Every structure is written in C-alpha cells, then in structure tokens.
Amino acid sequence: MEILDSYIKSVPTIQNALDIFTGEWATRLPRDLGKLGLENFQHFVDPRIQWSVEKIGGIQDKIVLELGPLEAGHTYMLEKLGAKSIVAVEANTRAYLKCLIIKEIMGLNKAKFLCGDFIEYLKTNPGKFDFCVAIGVLYHTINPPELIELISKISNKVFIWTHYYDQEYIEKKDYLPPKFSSSQIADYKGFKHTLYRYEYLTALDSAGFCGGSNSFSYWMSKDDIFASLNYFGFSHIETNFVDPEHPNGPCLGLVAISP
C-alpha cells in the first residue's frame, strides 16, 4: 500500500511538485513561486551568468551548452538572456527530474534537458555550440584536463566556475585536509599537471548530494587550470568571483575564449 503515499489528493499546485523532493533543493525560486526550505543558492539571479554573458558579447539567438544544470536556475537565466536554444546535460537522476519540474513551473521552452554523463556526451561529437557554461563541475570530475579539451572541441567560448587546490589555504581549515587523501603527477595528451584527490566522505549520505558520479574527484591548482586552458587553445582568459577564502575551498570564475 506504500505506493498510495505517492499520490496527491489536493488541488494541483506548484508546491506539490516541489515537495516531491522535499529537503533536497539547493536553489531558491524567484518571485516566491514556492517554498523550497533552503536558500543556499540564488541560481535564478546569479551574477556569474550575467557577467559571463556580457563578457562574450551576449547570447541573443545563440546555441548554448550547459554542463550540470543542477536545478535549472542557470538554464532559466540563459533563456531569459536570449539564447536560441539550450542543451543541458545532467547525470544526477534526481537533479534531472528537478530540472524537469522547474522547466514546467517556469515555462522554459528553449531548453532541452538530457539525462546522462556530460563527458560521455561530449565524446559523441554533438556538434558546435556558441557558448558553454560549466559552473560547479570541473572539480567534480576525475580528469579535469579531459573536460577542458572536450569543451574546446565544441565551443570557442566557455564560462567555468570551479574550486581549485591551494595547500596553504586548505591547511588553515581543519575540516578540509581530511578530504584530500593524496596527490599525483599526471599527463593528459602531453599536458603535465598535478591532481589532488578529493573524497566526498559523508556528503554521499545526503539525498541532495550534487557532486560527481564517483566517491571522489580530482582538483587542480589554479595555475594548472589556466595552463590546461592555454594548452587546449583558450588563449584569452578573464577572471572574476575569485574567493580564496570560500569555506568549501578556494574558487574562481573565468571566461575563456579561443580564436
């Protein structure tokens, strides 16, 4: 009889849809459309999207690829800023379903959400995009330079927001060093760099987990991130939203453009 608990017996409302994932939402909806219980992220009014779009000269009538849309807040902004179409690829099945809820609630008609791994998607040669948005995903991969290379093949403009490894800062926070279990020298297609293994630990116990698809990921230093972008053809880089004191680890945002 537990299946009957999945039925709603009240008048249809936006809140009914949001409550399917009660306690798992990270993003606050705009205009008080519904209560999510958390206000951690303001992705529907995120200055990172506004800044990056301005830096590339706008996205009016442009085709955009979004990696890891999470709860479609940035997708919403990209559509409102004039994108012709948006392909958003999400591997977390619960996040994917939340994106579909937001698509319905917010009336998004330019966005198509794909359920799957964006690394594997990029390997299929999906065509060219005018702009790629990769917020909060690089540090959740196990081969960051690979992602950068794959992006370089499908777009000459990308916005990346990511955490990066900085030993001096991380050692100041007693809760961060236990998450970094090891480091190793790596070589990806001739690009030599250092990877720092990050363990998700107890974060994996949360239904609202929004990390990578493994129990760990690899971070790079800021210098190696810039070097990998240059190595794979992104010759022009502008940064913003640099925060070396972020509680989850140093972070930055950057727009990278190749000729």
Task: List key phrases describing it.
three-stranded antiparallel sheet, 10 strands, seven-stranded mixed sheet, single chain, alpha/beta, 259 residues
Written account of the structure:
26% of the residues lie in helices and 25% in strands. By secondary structure, it is of the alpha/beta class. Strand 9 (236-243) and strand 10 (251-257) form a beta hairpin. The longest helix has 14 residues, at 93-106. The protein is globular, with a radius of gyration of 19 Å. It starts with 13 loop residues before the first helix and ends with a strand.
Q: How far from one another are the termini?
A: 61 Å
Give the strand tally.
Answer: 10
* Global outline: globular
The value of Rg in angstroms is 19 Å
Biggest sheet record: 7 strands, mixed
Number of helices: 8
Oligomer: single chain
Give the structural class.
alpha/beta
N-to-C series of helices and strands: HHEHEHEHEHEHEEEHEE
Uncertain runs are none
Question: What percent of the residues sit in helical stretches (DSSP H or I)?
Answer: 25-40%
The largest beta-sheet arranges its strands as: 3-2-1-4-5-10-9
Average pLDDT score: 94
**How large is the share of residues in beta strands?**
25-35%
